[in-house]
Amino acid sequence: MDQKKTGQFLKKLRNEKGLTQEQLAKRFNVSNRSVSRWETGSNLPDISLLVEIADFYDVDVREIIDGERKSEMMDKEIREVAGKMADYSNNETKGHLLWVQIAGIAGIILSLAALVLQGLTYQPDLKRFFAIVMTFAVLGIMSIITLYVTGVLQKIMAHKKLMSAIKITVFVLIGCGLCWVITTAFAIGMFYLSFNSSKVEVSELPESFAKYIHVSDPDSEYSYGNMPEFDVLPQSLEGLNIKEYQLTYYNPWDPQYLVYFTVDYDEQDYAAEIDRLSKIGVEDEYVNYYSVTGEPEGYDLVAMDCSEYYGFIYAMIPEGDNSSNEITYVAIWFCNYAPDLDVHDYIPGKYLLKGLDVSDDNPYRSSRL
Known about the structure:
Helix 1 crosses helix 3. Among the domains are: about 5-75, 434 Repressor (Amino-terminal Domain), CATH 1.10.260; about 200-369, no CATH class. The protein is built from twelve helices and six strands. The chain has helices spanning about 5-15, 20-25, 30-40, 45-55, 60-65, 75-120, 125-150, 150-155, 160-195, 210, 265-280, 365-369; strands spanning about 200-205, 240-250, 255-265, 300-305, 310-320, 325-335. With about 375 residues, the protein is of the alpha+beta class. It has a six-stranded antiparallel sheet with strand order 1-2-3-6-5-4, covered by helices on one side. The protein is rod-shaped.
């Protein structure tokens, strides 16, 4: 069989009818491209269309296949056989494509559901961003495959106005998608730039306390230290006998404090401070947060302000030592259920609450996110 000869014959028949490729495509509900492929011989009409084309041009099916006119016409019996063959081919194809169609529709539904869920739980993260982009791409591919195997895509392509509307819609969606991608990429870029450019500020000078805690300027970068929970800490360290001191501040996106210091008071100031701290009291629910099971070993808590989201700020005294006037203050304050720093690198273990786990993958955080 010479496909090019067949194609030239089909082109000749169309020209004899005085039709354009577009007009013929509309007649048989196919795309202009399909007609062009028939006439160049790169493809041939489906067997289901072959009888219709033969009837339309008033020629024998064998003449189309051979690419030339014959003296005799196909009789009724041959036409019936060809028609039955076309019906058989359609039924067999439909049977094979049924499961493909079902799988395509299921794929579209699952991809759409995955896209919605990822959008609802989205947070600026490079991996999540690419996961959404890939899910969107899979949704588009599954949609095109499903439209193709159901025959809808070919029908859509045969209508110019509908195709123009689809193209405009696609361009608009692509434009909106690009804007979203650029905006998201910019936000993620700014997040990582801010995160990586932030420095850990560590001070062992008590004079730095006023810079970070109970600051007078409400617009200061360190105004986070004005939160009510920081009232557990003294308003000022000026004039106090500080035995040890370390304040760590880190702000990659949200401010974080890891602080400990010990003050040795005289008897009068010690009594006044104990009275102040006793009025704040100890929140019993602190043992429910971050795997904490109790006070630091060898210490009694005299004041505690805690938050299931931010952490702990507390004051404590040596257990059973009535001769000591020392009070140790500790602040482990962060955001999003875990600090970005390892608390054990900045606060001695003896000052940490028993069982405390504020690591990045701590169980308490996992149960909340």
